[in-house]
Amino acid sequence: MDPLLxxxxxxxxxxxxxxLMAGLLGIGGGLxxxxxxxxxxxxxxxxxIEHGMPIALxxxxxxxIFTGLSSTRSHYxxxxxxxxxxxxxxxxxxxxxxAGAFFATSVSGVMLQRxxxxxxxxxxxxxxxxxxxxxxxxxxxxxxxxxxxGSGFIAxxxxxxxxxxxxPSLVWFQVNIKKAxxxxxxxxxxxxxxxxxxxxxxxxxxxxxxxxxxxxxxxxAAFGIVLTSVFTAPIGAKLTRKFxxxxxxxxxxxxxxxxSIRMIIGLE
Length: 268
Prior knowledge:
The protein has helices at residues 3-25, 30-43, 49-77, 83-104, 109-129, 141-158, 163-172, 177-202, 219-239, 245-265, and strands at 213-214, 217-218. The two termini are 32 Å apart. By secondary structure, the protein is mostly helical.
């Protein structure tokens, strides 16, 4: 079978799983997409990790533009998006996410995979042990710009929407948890948009990228993932009534740790 067709079919399946898990656990799909897509690129298309890792990150981030819009629309209708917060975060996010994308394409694929694995372990630890804490620190232009800048850089470097970084940061500054999640969903789209621009620009005219690439974004994979994830995410959201999502999230976090360790060991 044609490797391109196999890739698209596998990404359609990946998208279905990603959407389901995102809806069920309220997590971004990038944590699943990046390591899985990297395996597909290496084993189906024979792309070395040196180029496969930035392609996986860029493609994952690109899909967030489409999957995040649906979530943002829902939160907007619920009144969970605070314009003053997202607008003040936006400038920092734009700069941080573009910088993160350019940094990701300037380091070696092996180093990039190690960075990704370590950051995933930290996010998994947060998922297991973190309980929202509130400080007395004031929420102002400087703090929001810093949140946007830092979250944008790290999220672009990981190919994720950044909710795991933005939500606890806003809660720390006394933002209601529901509004923090709503603002994070909006910010995730901004991160994905500007991060994708960074990956597309830095990958422009690179002759080692596979056919049908838009910069570092591999369009066939992105198409397959988006095609199914937008339909399975609502199903996952409905399943939250039937499962203990707190326990499932801990199990998933443990799985992420194992995947990350495997990514690190596999480089030795």
